[in-house]
Specification:
The complex is a heterodimer of chains A (319) and B (294).
Chain A (H helix, E strand, L loop, with lengths): L2 H13 L1 H11 L7 H23 L8 H16 L6 H23 L4 H21 L1 H4 L13 E3 L2 E3 L4 H24 L1 H11 L1 H6 L4 H27 L9 H14 L6 H19 L3 H15 L3 H10 L1
Antiparallel strand pairs in A: 1-2
Helix pairs in contact in A: 1-2, 2-8, 3-8, 3-11, 3-12, 3-13, 4-5, 4-11, 5-6, 5-11, 8-9, 9-11, 12-13, 12-15, 13-14
Chain B lengths: L5 H32 L6 H19 L2 H22 L10 H22 L15 E3 L4 E3 H23 L1 H11 L1 H6 L4 H27 L5 H16 L4 H21 L7 H12 L13
Antiparallel strand pairs in B: 1-2
Helix pairs in contact in B: 1-5, 1-8, 1-9, 1-10, 2-3, 2-4, 2-8, 2-9, 3-8, 5-6, 6-8, 9-10, 9-11
The chains are: A mainly alpha (319), B mainly alpha (294).
Chain lengths: 319, 294
């Protein structure tokens, strides 16, 4: 493809990001080695999208996003497995509600400190939830994870759809993720989104302009938890199990790595990063048992030499 | 709850002092590095883990705990010098998130690297024969090794205080914490000071790992567990404050230890509850100055 043709494609993607996203991910399951990997990319891309709203756009580095992903997963899973909810929509709604309430509470505490403390606090509160889930075995299954989540047929107007087929599940997740991506775009394009980016660039100036910066940060935190919670709820349905590691620091670390590999503060960076991470991990684990070493080294190289990530650097090169 | 034997309570309080000592060694290194360089070192816990593993290997080679007690912190500290010189130094001037992210990647690689070298299964380390017994303190029996850990922690703290308060280099470090630009204007090469302080902090993490090994076992994830606890200590004490690191470290050691005694299920959660309370009542930490690196 010539440079100008590439430029035209890039210009179209930039002008119609949601359409581009919809088209690309409709074809995506047929481009990867197996379909469950495509679903994973979609779900973790959504998780990273939520993280990116907070880190990339608001400038708040959270090292504890496993908390909201895990709350979404446990909320959805417990609704189906323990509360015997039969509607997937209701179960996902309960998961989202859990993540949002958790995000609001933890966000309130973490936002009492700024800067580098924020990262440490988010990590600490997420680890606290991990221990709570670990010990509350009657509710969460503890160390064994929450098992036996029934994957009921999805209720739709005029019928129901079984999600047992991987491709059917992919497109169920796809519809929700496209809606979430469109929602995020709407948030970022709103005056609220502009204030988020103003806070990232210069918090003091945003205060001086009369914005209630702490309230806006908390709102961004809650939105971010909402996306992470939806990702967690979908993953609970995908796996029909919630491992207690969903709340572990390594899950928080994964979403940080994905977002930075793809490009923090770019719209599609999180999905590019999730795809890179998951496909890399999938291929690497065939050859090396200790594949996280390779990921760790690649991540360090990105922080040092390519801080804009893959997508951010590409955008810069194409101009 | 009130008819607990006093001696058992005293023993638990003493155990808390030992755990607190480990927290203090970790938090002081973190705080020192942060105060001077505004670098939050996520890999601090992984150097603690490395200290424990290197001590295990040195003990295997030399059959001497004492050799490992001296050599392991030196080896780990030397590695810390390399990390500062070739990785972290590249990030000065980029804002505090980048060193945190870099050291997170480093810590991920170190945890997996340790599993490759020393295996996935945790190791147990025996305390040296001279310290294996228990001593009668009058009201209870207490393992000598734990008293030894308290003594080493205290000795390191005194040495560090003398170094910072009485030597020229210590004076430069304190000045560099206050106003690095002015120190540079006086013609002092701060790069060498940063290198030294980073190596010193890492060596203390390594020492904490060596000391913790015989009490808590040696396993690859031990580093990430202690770094989260250390972050909590530093938030409670106030980042950059050495007094805060000591007080909060000992306090958290006691809190964990006494909770283990009264409500074992809460032991892993209680420090986060204390942290939340401190955040509500005194957001800048017990000894923190509001606004520092915020």
């Amino acid at each position: 493809m010539s440079r100008s043709a590439l430029g035209r494609v890039a210009a179209w993607v930039r002008a119609h990001p949601i359409a581009a996203f919809t088209v690309f991910f409709a074809a995506f399951p047929f481009l990867v080695p197996y379909q469950s990997l495509a679903t994973q990319v979609l779900i973790f891309g959504l998780f990273a999208l939520g993280f990116n709203l907070l880190y990339g756009y608001t400038g708040l580095l959270s090292f504890g996003h496993a908390a909201y992903y895990g709350l979404g997963a446990y909320g959805t899973g417990i609704a189906l497995a323990k509360l015997k909810v039969t509607s997937l929509w209701l179960a996902l709604g309960i998961g989202l509600g859990t993540a949002v309430v958790g995000g609001a509470c933890i966000g309130f505490f973490c936002l009492r400190r700024r800067g580098i403390y924020f990262a440490m606090l988010t990590l600490a509160f997420a680890q606290m939830l991990y221990f709570v889930a670990f010990h509350a075995a009657e509710l969460t299954g503890g160390d064994d994870g929450l098992r036996g989540i029934p994957l009921h047929a999805l209720g739709l107007p005029g019928g129901s759809l079984s999600l047992r087929d991987p491709l059917a599940f992919y497109f169920f997740a796809y519809v929700l993720v496209v809606l979430a991506v469109a929602g995020l775009k709407r948030i970022l394009d709103s005056p609220f989104g502009a204030v988020l980016q103003a806070i990232r660039e210069n918090g003091d100036r945003a205060v001086a302009c009369g914005y209630d910066v702490n309230r806006i940060k908390l709102l961004s935190f809650v939105f971010s938890a909402l996306f992470a919670g939806l990702a967690g709820g979908l993953d609970a349905l995908r796996l029909t199990v919630v491992p207690v590691d969903a709340l572990y620091w390594s899950t928080s670390g994964q979403v940080v790595i994905m977002t930075l590999l793809g490009g923090a503060g770019t719209f599609f960076g999180p999905f590019v990063g999730a795809a890179t991470f998951l496909i890399l991990a999938d291929r690497l684990s065939i050859f090396i048992e200790a594949w996280p070493i390779v990921i760790g080294v690649i991540f360090m190289a990105f922080v040092l030499f390519l801080p804009k990530g893959i997508w951010g650097t590409l955008l810069e090169k194409i101009g | 709850m009130l008819d607990v034997p006093l001696s058992a309570l005293a023993a638990q309080a003493f155990t808390g002092l030992v755990l607190g000592g480990i927290f203090v060694l970790m938090a002081i290194g973190l705080s020192l590095i942060f105060g001077l360089m505004t670098v939050v070192n996520f890999a601090h816990g992984s150097f603690y883990m490395l200290g424990a593993y290197v001590a295990f290997s040195v003990m295997g080679l030399t059959k001497s705990f004492w050799a490992s007690l001296v050599l392991a912190p030196l080896v780990v500290g030397a590695l810390g010098l390399v990390v500062e010189r070739f990785l972290i130094r590249r990030l000065y001037g980029r804002g505090p998130d980048d060193p945190l992210l870099l050291t997170f990647g480093l810590s991920l690689a170190m945890v997996e690297g340790a599993k490759l070298v020393w295996g996935k299964i945790g190791l147990t380390v025996d305390p040296p024969k001279q310290l294996a017994a228990a001593v009668n303190l009058g009201f209870m029996n207490f393992p000598v090794y734990r008293l030894f850990v308290i003594a080493v922690t205290a000795a390191v703290l005194v040495a560090l205080w003398l170094f910072l308060a009485k030597t020229n280099v210590g004076l430069i470090i304190r000045a560099g914490t206050r106003d690095p630009l002015m120190v540079r204007a006086l013609g002092i090469d701060l790069n060498r000071i940063w290198l030294l302080v980073f190596g010193l902090g890492i060596a203390m993490a390594g020492l904490a790992g060596v000391l913790a090994g015989p009490m808590r076992g040696v396993y690859a994830e031990m580093g990430v567990e202690i770094i989260i606890d250390s972050f909590v200590v530093v938030v409670v004490g106030g980042m950059g404050s050495l007094a805060g690191a000591i007080v909060a470290g000992l306090l958290m050691g006691e809190v964990v230890s006494l909770t283990t005694f009264f409500a074992p299920k809460l032991a892993e959660i209680v420090i986060f509850i204390v942290m939340a309370i401190v955040l509500l009542v005194r957001p800048s930490g017990l000894f923190g100055e509001a606004g520092l690196a915020e």
